Each structure stands twice: as C-alpha cells, then as structure tokens.
C-alpha cells in the first residue's frame, strides 16, 4: 500500500474514531475508582485499532477481571504488571475490539433434524435428500436447509421434479438459506391439498410455470404446511448444543456479540441452558419474534428490552413486513428487472401500526423487517406517528435490513433516530441475485455510504443463515462492493476500511444500547477483543476476507485460538 493511501486510511480512521468517541461518551461507566490493583492480562506489541479517539495511539492494553483496565504506552502498561499477570505478545498482529453482528439467526439451521444442502450441483442436493430420507422415520417430513437457488452449476433452481425423483413418498421441504422461500415435493402439496389452481394465500405465493406448480413456495405460503404431516422434534439438550455450536463458530470468526433477530421460546431456553453450562461463546441479544409465545410470556412477566445481563439480553421485538432481498420477494415501488413483479407485503399498514403501539405500551423497542422502499415507508409512517409526541431519549427503533432507500427515506430515518441494519456481506456473497435488481437499484441498496453521509448510525448485519456472518468478509464487501466474480454492485456505496470497522464495532454496540459496555478498546469497557493476522486498514481490500483470526477474547478469556 502506498504512503498516500495509508495516510488517507489514517485520516478516515481518525474521522471514524472521533465520531465513535463522541457517541461512546454517553453512558460510559466511571472506571477511575474501579481500576485498582494489578492487571490480570497485558497485551503488547501489536497494532491497536481501538475505535476510540482518546486511546487511538495506544501501544498496549491492561485487563483486570472482565474489563479493560488501561490503554497506553508499553512502559505505562508494564507498570501495571504483577507476579501473576498473564501476557500476550501481539507483535505482527492487529488488535481490535470484538466484532458485533446486530442481526442474525444462529439457530435457524437446525442440523439435528435437517441436512445442509449448501452444495453447487443439483445432483448433490438429490443425493443428500435421499440419504436424509433414509435417516428420517417413514411419514415424517424430510428437511433440508442452506439451499441457494443461484449457486448451482446447472444455472437453474431446484424443482419439485428434482425432489420427486429421489424422495417420492415422503413430504420434503428444502428451505432456502434466506428463510423466505422453500421448495417442496409433490407429496407435500398433496398432503396440504394444494393443486395447480389453488389460490395464493394473502402474503404468500405458490410459484407456477405454464400453470403448473414448480415446488417453490414463498413467505406466508410456507405456513400452510405447518399443520400437515409429522414434523421431526428436537429435544432441549440438542437445542442447547445447537446454541453452543453456533456461538462457538461465530467466535472463531472474530464475533464477540451477535443478535438472534426473531427468537422463539425454545431458542431463549437454549441460550439460557448454554449460558448456565458455560457453553455460550458470544454475547447474544435476543429479539423475540412478535405474535409468539415467547413475546407474550415476556410481556406477561414484565420483561422488556434490556432485561438480562452482559451475556444474554432481551433486545427489540421483531416483526417482518415484507419479503427477502436475496430471494427476490421484497416489496418495491418498481418491479424486478424484466418483470411485473413488485414483491410481497406480509403486513398491512394497520398491522404495522398496531405492532408498534403494542411494543411501546409494553416498554419494548421494536425492529421491523422491511427490505423494499414501499415497506420502509410504511414502517417509518408508524414510527413517525408514535414519535410525534415522544418524551425522553431516542428509543432507537430499528428497521431490519432497510435494503432499498432513497433521499426522502434517508431524511426520515435520520429525523426519527431510526437504526437501519443493512446486510453487510451481501454485495460480495450474493452477486448473482443482483442481476434481478439491476444497476440503478443497486446504487441505493445496502446503502452504507448514504447512511454514513446522512449521519445515521447504520448497524452491522449478516442475517445468517441468509448471509455469511464472517466480519472479515463483511469489511471487504462494504469497502469494495465487489462480488466473488469481481463484479461491482453499487460502487457509490463503498465506504473506507476505517468506516467499515466502526460499523462492525461501535455502531453494532449502539444498535443494542450497549455502547457504554463494548464496541471499542476503552478503559472500563468489557474486555472483548480480537487478534488478527493482518491489518484490515493496510491489507489489499480484495483480500480482507482472507485475514486469519488468530484469537478471540471474551471477558479477557480466550473463546477461540487458532
């Protein structure tokens, strides 16, 4: 990297750190009277990107208990060492705050009862389905997950006929990794009494070609199968193991905090069980899904957003008002390329208004899934109505995904103090899907540049399983806007490496009202940090996704070591 480019990156970093420091000052705990005694752990020798302008020149870090004790020069920090102080020599490494994912679905891929079909040939999907059917008791649903219709070498999606050829006598559901569509077989349609001429349900669709069902079902059309046939069950211990496994994998990518953005009661119990067993490897913000038993139970018990501790905390209640970006069902004011398809709404304005009213009445923050510009407008209508006479601090209502924006929507998002959570790995990972949107729409999708320029605290979001959760891929995707084939999607939305770092740390903490506890390497904050094999600010931007994670620390303790 040239000196001029490196200097420019440093200027971007200083700008990002200044903004982060000003925001972090709100609610920062007093640490002066707590930082006594000797350090339990000292880290020296690395390049520190603290994301706090007041500690941006730090050469070393001291940790006591589960908090950062001090940041400073090597000599100053060495003075805090005692006979039992552990040490990390980070020479040649880069030290950053732990990365944060503000929107994911860690438990969505239930591998105990479903087979992973994230493969690149339809024939391999068929082989995996045949094996899964042999493992599944006769009469039960055969389940698969992580299907991606645009990744096959055959250049076409999976169909009903493909599944029928290998599993004709049991119902099959192959769920798209995006969670908004699936492909089922003829047996499933027959059991649900769905025929070629069956009307689409409101908020859903049975896809057809030449009047014949293709097997693809979308949005609320998937719900008609819930009460049909016998579904495999998973016991409590298995669910706990799923929570442990997924948070362990996330920690290995450099994440120290994640968000379950549509949790159910079984998921809440799984996280609780994993925490009690000492097997929760990242912090979890749990967003209960609206209109579910867990949300009803929390309201009845008087629980609300913010309830919990630093490891497991209740976040905003989550609703979904339209379709998917990656599965091309989001509701827009203009159609998908070459079609008259405008996408699918899954909530009316009245339903959105009622959801917001109920959340506010029960002291819950709210996050509403809205990908398309039409849906974002509807959500903002509801937020503006509630906030018109609002007393008190900004409640930081959220728009989950907030994919397709325009200048008017940006202005309203800023005015309402709304937190958008656009996909951070999608530009890179899902390139083949953006052909259906076209270059004009992509100039206004996943609009990190526009959000930052408007002064909006845009949050980091993988939406895993729909998108990969790896922070290094996220940085590369936001910086380059290049997909895996080198195609650029929305070049105008590129942001700097320093800005991308702030999105994935400080902005992530802000999204859950936890900026006083995490998001930067600041004395008094939780000792969550990552050791990287290379510096994202000086690495070739097209190679950032390959930066190795050397270690991830949570509360000053290693949760992953390479």
UniProtKB/TrEMBL annotation:
All residue ranges annotated as the Amidohydrolase domain in the record: 88-560
Signal peptide from the UniProt entry: 1-24
Keyword annotations from UniProtKB, A to Z: Hydrolase, Signal
Lineage, opening ranks: Bacteria, Pseudomonadati, Pseudomonadota, Gammaproteobacteria, Cellvibrionales
Entry EC no(s): 3.5.-.-
Species in which this protein is naturally found: Congregibacter variabilis
Record protein name field: Amidohydrolase
Any Pfam family the entry gives: Amidohydro_3
GO molecular function: hydrolase activity
């Amino acid at each position: 990297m040239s000196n001029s480019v490196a200097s420019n990156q440093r200027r971007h970093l200083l700008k990002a750190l200044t903004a982060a420091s000003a925001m972090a000052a709100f609610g920062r705990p007093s640490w002066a009277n707590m930082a006594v005694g000797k350090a339990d752990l000292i880290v020296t020798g690395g390049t520190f990107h603290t994301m706090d302008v007041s500690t941006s020149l730090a050469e070393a870090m001291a940790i006591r208990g589960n908090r950062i004790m001090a940041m400073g020069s090597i000599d100053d920090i060495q003075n805090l060492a005692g006979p039992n102080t552990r040490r990390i020599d980070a020479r040649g490494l880069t030290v950053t705050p732990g990365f944060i994912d503000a929107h994911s679905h860690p438990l969505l891929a239930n591998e105990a009862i479903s087979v992973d079909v994230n493969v690149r040939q339809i024939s391999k999907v068929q082989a995996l389905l045949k094996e899964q059917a042999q493992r599944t008791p006769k009469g039960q649903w055969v389940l698969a997950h992580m299907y991606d219709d645009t990744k096959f070498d055959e250049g076409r999606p999976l169909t009903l006929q493909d599944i029928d050829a290998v599993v004709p006598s049991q119902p099959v559901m192959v769920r798209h990794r995006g969670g908004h569509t699936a492909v089922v077989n003829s047996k499933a349609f027959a059991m649900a009494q769905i025929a070629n001429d069956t009307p689409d349900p409101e908020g859903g669709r049975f896809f057809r070609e030449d009047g014949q069902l293709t097997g693809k079902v979308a949005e609320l059309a998937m719900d008609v199968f819930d009460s049909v046939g016998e579904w495999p069950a998973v016991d409590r211990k298995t669910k706990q193991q799923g929570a442990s496994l997924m948070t362990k994998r996330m920690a290995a990518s450099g994440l120290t905090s994640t968000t379950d953005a549509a949790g159910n009661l079984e998921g809440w119990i799984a996280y609780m069980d994993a925490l009690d067993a000492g097997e929760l490897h990242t912090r979890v913000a749990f967003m209960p899904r609206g209109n579910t038993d867990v949300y009803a139970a929390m309201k009845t018990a008087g629980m609300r957003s913010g309830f919990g501790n630093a490891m497991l905390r209740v976040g905003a209640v989550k609703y979904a008002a339209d379709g998917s970006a990656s599965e091309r069902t989001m509701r827009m004011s203009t159609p998908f390329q070459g079609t008259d398809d405008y996408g699918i709404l899954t909530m009316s304005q009245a339903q959105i208004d009622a959801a917001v009213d109920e959340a506010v009445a029960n002291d819950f923050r709210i996050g509403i899934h809205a990908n398309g510009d039409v849906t974002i407008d509807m959500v903002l209508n509801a937020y503006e109505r509630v906030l018109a006479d609002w007393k008190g601090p900004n409640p930081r209502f959220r728009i989950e995904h907030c994919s397709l924006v325009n200048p008017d929507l940006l202005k309203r998002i800023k005015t309402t103090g709304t937190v958008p959570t656009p996909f951070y790995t999608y530009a890179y990972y899902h390139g083949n899907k953006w052909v259906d949107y076209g270059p004009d729409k992509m100039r206004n999708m996943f609009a990190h540049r526009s959000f930052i320029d408007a002064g909006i605290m845009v949050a980091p979001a993988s939406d895993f399983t729909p998108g990969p959760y790896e922070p290094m891929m996220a940085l590369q995707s936001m910086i380059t806007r290049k997909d895996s084939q080198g195609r650029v999607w929305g070049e105008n939305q590129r942001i700097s490496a320093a800005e991308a770092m702030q999105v994935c740390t400080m902005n992530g903490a802000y999204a859950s009202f936890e900026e006083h506890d995490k998001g930067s390497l600041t004395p008094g904050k939780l000792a969550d940090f990552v050791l990287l094999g290379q510096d994202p600010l000086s690495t070739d931007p097209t190679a950032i996704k390959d930066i190795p994670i050397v270690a991830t620390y949570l509360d000053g303790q290693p949760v992953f070591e390479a």
